[in-house]
Amino acid sequence: MDPVLTEIMKNRFTAMAEEAATVAYRTAHTTFVKQTQDFQVALATLAGEFFAYPVMTGVTSGSGQSIRPFLDEFDRESLRPGDVLISNDPFRTGGLVTHMMDIHLVRPVFLDGELLCFAWSFVHASDIGGAVPGSISPDFTESFQEGLRLRPMKIVRAGELNQDVVDILRDNSRIGDAVWGDLEALMAAMRLLDARAVELARKVGLATFRQGIENVLSYAEQKARSVIGRLKDGDYHFTDYLEGNDVDHAIHIHCKLTISGEEASIDYSGSSAQVHAAMNFYTGSRTHPFLCLALTNYIQTVEPLTPVNGGLLRPVTAFAPLGSLMNAEFPAASGNRWVAVMRVYDALIGCLNQAIPEGIAACGAGQAGIISAAWIDPITGRSRVAVVEPFSGGSGGRVRADGVDGTDTMIGYLKSTPVEHVEIETPLIVRRHELVADTFGHGRHRGGASILIELESRADDVKLTVRGLDRYRFQPWGAFGGEPGQTGSAVLTTADTSEEIGRVKILTLQKGDVLRLTSPSGGGFGNPLERDPTLVLKDVCDGLLSVRDAADIYGVVIAAGDVDVVEAEATRTRGQPKDRQWSVTLGDARDRYESVWPVEASLALGRATTNLPAGMRRAALTASRRDLTRDGVPVDAAQVADVVKHHGRVTAP
Q1: Cα(336)–Cα(466) distance, rounded to whole angstroms?
Q2: Residue 268, Cβ density class (10 Å: 0-12 exposed, 13-18 middle, ≥19 buried)
Q3: What is the DSSP letter of 273?
Q4: To 10 degrees, what angle do helices 176-204 and 163-171 make?
Q5: d(CA 116, CA 45)
Q6: Range list of β-strands (E), 25-131
Q7: Taking the CB of residue 458, how many other CB atoms lie within 10 A of it?
Q8: How far separated are the first and last CA of the chain, in Å rounded?
Q9: Reading across the β-sheet that carries 489-493, which strands appear in turn?
Q10: Cβ distance 526 to 580 under 8 Å?
Q11: What CA–CA distance (Å, rounded) separates 528 from 555?
């Protein structure tokens, strides 16, 4: 591999992708694209691997995707210059589409009549129809409720727009003009990618162009192997939970990470079966990037010059059983799938903490609360839908740094919407949007603080949907002696009452109503008594930590009347640091839950129910949980399979 050629081609490919991404968000119509940047563009090989992917713009979590399952729906010989393929069907694209609101486009790129590569893009459509504005409700139970689903087809044939497909798209969205405007922005970006790829191939020659592609993919693979090779060989296990719609039972995600030399294997066997809610996602029974994000993010953190492309996943295999939460069968609802992806991420972080002697990070807020508003325009009488804000929460403390306040690093690429834009575009006033004091998980490196947003309605009958809220029951866990973060909360204030309402799903606001959301915070990393006193002082000065907690938790006494000085004599009495061994602090709620449902019992339940035919799972799961849970007595894992098998027979048609 020529290192000079590889570096030149890597930079050219990245620049092409970044330029096209800029075109997309500069010309997009909806807030969620032009402000939050929930979209992406890239170039893929003839085999479907991404080789040119932006690193500064748009969604950065999909570089390991493969568009091959989408392409396999077409006869390659039928593709022509100027074609554009479209789909938003997860089950016909092998999980390339991860929920139906993401509309994917592919444009074949030709050089002198020969297929050169593929331009790809996706956009989160702010509405594709369905039962609620914005098309997503955590309570949906099947994909038919989530709006229009398009199987892979051509929306443009040899440069000629298929107006019938366009009309179907526009007619099935509450904001059809805006959604179509976003797709036009993507097609403009892909035309630019097409032109730039052809231009570069002509300049360097076809052979050099193709060699450059293979070089950058192999270079990313080499970097990934070098990082994985530094991890301890062995098997590592961790379980985490989604709170779901059942107040008595959680949805468990179990991760087994196996490190063997320069290769990693990730197995989610034993995790919960797909659920009767919109938290599922389909991964096509393949090594899907959503199953590996924590590992690929770690690789890019340790080796920041690693090319961002499909080569990152070459030394990784991932498996999720068909019928499980993260490889759900049709017609599973998946609109709220990102909260499940985040918990998969947390479970893999838990494994990596064991494979890396010094650890990596504590748990972050673990939610992506996408706030959407819908209302009737008083002038036109037409429906309006807008995404207000991606509402996250503090990230976990890290081995060498504090967590990030107000945002979980797992979704740090989603940009906050400017307050002015929200108040111009929607009938909402942002009364407060701020960090919350005394919320972060304490540790040598503290977690990120919670963030609060307070929204007041200026009109009647404004519908808010908030998907992806979680960690209202189970705290984000602390690591290596760090304390867990805080849970989230939601308070609705009307003319008559002010009350805690729990996780918001769909809410109708009247004029003057105020919704206040407070996010979870990040867990702490390491013993709080090891924290640098100057950092404790800074947190006090920044208003994020009380003087009392500084003394009681960190052993740092701030001199009376002067918060700018640490009282040295008292500070010297701080406790001695503990051994820096892997440990996890789960929080009281999770400890209580696992005292009744031990991890081993949950894994047995996951395996047994996933193995049932799809039509039997829900009834068998409900009945089995009822029979196995008795007055706080711990569930016997050995009994689970027999109970599920019995109820599977009873519920068989």
Answers
A1: 10
A2: buried
A3: B
A4: 140
A5: 8
A6: 39-44, 50-52, 84-87, 102-111, 114-124
A7: 14
A8: 60
A9: 428-435, 451-457, 514-518, 489-493, 498-500
A10: yes
A11: 9
Quickly tell me which residue has 């040295």 as its tokens.
Answer: 568
Write down the pLDDT at residue 291: 98
Gap between the Cα atoms of 448 and 354, Å rounded: 22
Q: What is the pLDDT of residue 572?
A: 65
User: Rounded to the nearest 5°, which phi and psi values hold at 332?
Assistant: -55, 140
pLDDT at position 541 is 93
Specify the residue for token string 């320069």.
262
Q: How far is CA 291 from CA 76, 318, 518, in A?
A: 29, 7, 28
d(CA 90, CA 102): 9
Residue 477, token pair as written in the block:
């866990």
Query: Using only C-alpha atoms, what is the Rg of the chain?
Result: 25
Domain boundary assignment for the chain: 3-223, 362-527, 597-650
Six token digits for residue 303: 């080796």
372 dihedral zone (left: phi>0; alpha: psi -120 to 50; beta)? beta
Structure tokens at 120: 């790809």
Q: What is the pLDDT of residue 653?
A: 47
And the tokens for 312? 């990152």
- Say how far residue 30 (Cα) sits from the centre of its chain: 20
CA distance 14 to 202: 18
**Distance of alpha carbon 497 from alpha carbon 415, whole angstroms:** 33
264, 258 in Cβ contact below 8 A? yes
Chain segment 483-502, per-residue pLDDT in tens? 999 999 999 999 999 999 99
Which residues of the chain carry a pLDDT beneath 50?
A: 651-653
Q: Which two tokens stand for residue 62?
A: 């999909």
Q: Which of 638, 636, 635, 647 is nearest to 609 (CA)?
A: 647
Parallel/antiparallel/unpaired status of strands 263-267 and 316-319: parallel
Token couple for 207: 């052979």
Which pLDDT does position 416 carry in this prediction? 87
* CB 484 within 8 Å of CB 522: no
Please give the structure tokens belonging to residue 420.
């002015």
CB 510 within 8 A of CB 461: yes
pLDDT tens-digit readout, 555-576: 999 887 666 677 777 776 666 5
Q: What are phi and psi for residue 539, nearest 5 degrees?
A: -65, -40
Residue 437 and residue 509 in contact, taking contact as beta carbons nearer than 8 Å: no
Residue 159 burial (10 A CB sphere; 0-12, 13-18, 19+): exposed
* Rounded Cα distance, 321 and 285, in Å: 7
363 contacts 485 by C-beta, under 8 angstroms: yes
Residues in CB range of 394: below 8 A, 6 or more apart: 364, 365, 403, 404, 405, 406, 407, 408, 439, 440, 447, 448, 449, 450, 451, 485, 519, 520, 521, 522
CA 330, CA 91: separation in Å to the nearest integer?
A: 7
The DSSP secondary-structure symbol of 165 reads H
Bridging pattern class, strands 451-457 and 428-435: antiparallel
